[in-house]
Specification:
Length: 199
Amino acid sequence: MKIIVIGASGTIGKAVSSHLAARHEIVSVGANSGDVRADIRDSAQVRRLFEQAGKVDAVVVAAGAVHFGPLAELGPEQFQVGIASKLMGQVNVAQAAAEWLSDGGSITLISGIVAEQPIRFGASASMVNSAVEGFVRGAAIELPRGLRINAVSPTLLEESLDAYGPYFYGFEPTSADRVALAYSRSVEGAQTGQVYRVW
């Protein structure tokens, strides 16, 4: 298969690319690096990405920013970070991908454990991750041509303990390689409308 990996230079993106590259052709995408450059917050850039990459069999996203902070200090600008990037950025990708995927192709988005297991300072992240999962379930019943869409919901990564560990006391971390297996299950399996939890 020919697979677009968006966020390919990130911790999860590298693991996913490495895992899938053993069997498939990878087109790496990032805002500042990769075979193709695109900021997923900009729907025009996303459309150009697919025009450059051409017909593909799968699209996976391992990218999207959210703002962490006390609820009392979250204003529209802080909420908008996650809405524009992790939510609408991935929606932009999914909608554009539907036009460029081969019949039976797949889209895999990323949510996160705080959709179901909230943490202090993570209200915006919980909101956005839950919305991503809702979009996946809703889109799954409307996609044409046998196209599939799923989400991967990872917990805290071992590789990210230094940066995010203080937000996730009591959570058992997992490896990026284990998260990559869930992406493989989505891309190379047959299910749709699923959230693969890697907790």
